[in-house]
């Protein structure tokens, strides 16, 4: 398991960040995609260590991963813990993401008699009207979230104990920014930034991942917080404002282009409308959040001219990622293998454009890993080392 390097034991924010990572949300499947993409990038890139960057920004499920990477866990560690569920030290229950919110349900049930009496009394006083008021009162009976993410916070509390790790933003060797939305003001708050760094990291992750309806709001310092994706999809600007010069961005949620998929030979699935309401809602949600992200990405070139921002995400003609339920943890092995190969193919296709940008920051692409393009073994680090050795041998032979 990864241990924070001695050379990284500086306090967070002690120097200007150079290389950073921004991770979007996307539910359990989105997290799997991001782990796979990071494993592929770690294998294929020389000169960058994704467990030893200068700044991490995470939203929702991306906040969960960012908090672990900032604590020294490697992408291969994340695969062992969350995909293979093979870690004895950090065992995780696959149901951790979808545990019923029993506390919230019990609290609402306890208030039912009082709310029922209030509703009846209101109806007696206003027998000919006030239906909207009756509906509003009845709505207070409904829980604010179906599932409980307390278990997620407790898992992180255990994971950050010992081994040089910490559940305190201020004690991390890297800057960590976890974005949530203040429910009462709708403002985005970057936990970990000065003034918002005194709560436990695990609690901030819980708040950032509190998607309304699915999870109850999380109260921190008297304020209620929900999913940070309600404001922005990626929040890459948080890292850029703090000075990041090379920023890797991973976004697992993109809308599907059925016509493009058909032109590229993917099996036809018919019209999306014919697949039912869940697919229609998924497409609408993806189109909405992706368009917001594109606006932000387009502005970074002019706002942060000295920075290189590299985005990795599924192709819009990728039916595997679109038609997989984002909350289906059971598909994690299949999604991981698919996303790992897809990321390597994406890197290979964009190599000419990306290589100069990476080179400006001392990072190079391992051509041997791209040529093989195979899925990694249980521990992908030997593959990365072999790829680096082959590339050095290739350069040596070309010099001769």
Rounded Rg = 23 Å
Q: Please report the distance between the alpha carbons of the first and last residues.
A: 40 Å
Major pleated sheet:
8 strands, mixed
Number of strands: 12
Classification by helices and strands: alpha/beta
The percent range for helix content is 40-55%
Oligomer: single chain
**Overall 3D shape:** globular
Q: What order do the SSEs take from the amino end to the carboxyl end, as H and E?
A: EHEEHHEHHHEHEEHEEHEHHEHHHEHH
Mean pLDDT level: 84
Explained architecture:
The strands form three sheets. Strands 1, 3, 6, 7, 8, 9, 10 and 11 form an eight-stranded mixed beta sheet that branches. The chain is built from 16 helices and twelve strands. Helices cover 46% and strands 12% of the residues.
Give the helix/strand layout.
Blueprint: E1 19-23, H1 27-44, E2 45-46, E3 55-59, H2 61-70, H3 75-83, E4 99-100, H4 102-110, H5 112-125, H6 131-139, E5 147-148, H7 150-159, E6 175-182, E7 188-191, H8 201-208, E8 218-220, E9 223-227, H9 236-241, E10 246-250, H10 258-263, H11 277-303, E11 308-312, H12 319-322, H13 332-349, H14 351-359, E12 364-365, H15 367-372, H16 381-399
Parallel strand pairs: 1-3, 1-10, 3-6, 10-11
Antiparallel strand pairs: 2-12, 4-5, 6-7, 6-9, 8-9
Helix pairs in contact: 1-2, 1-3, 1-13, 2-8, 7-8
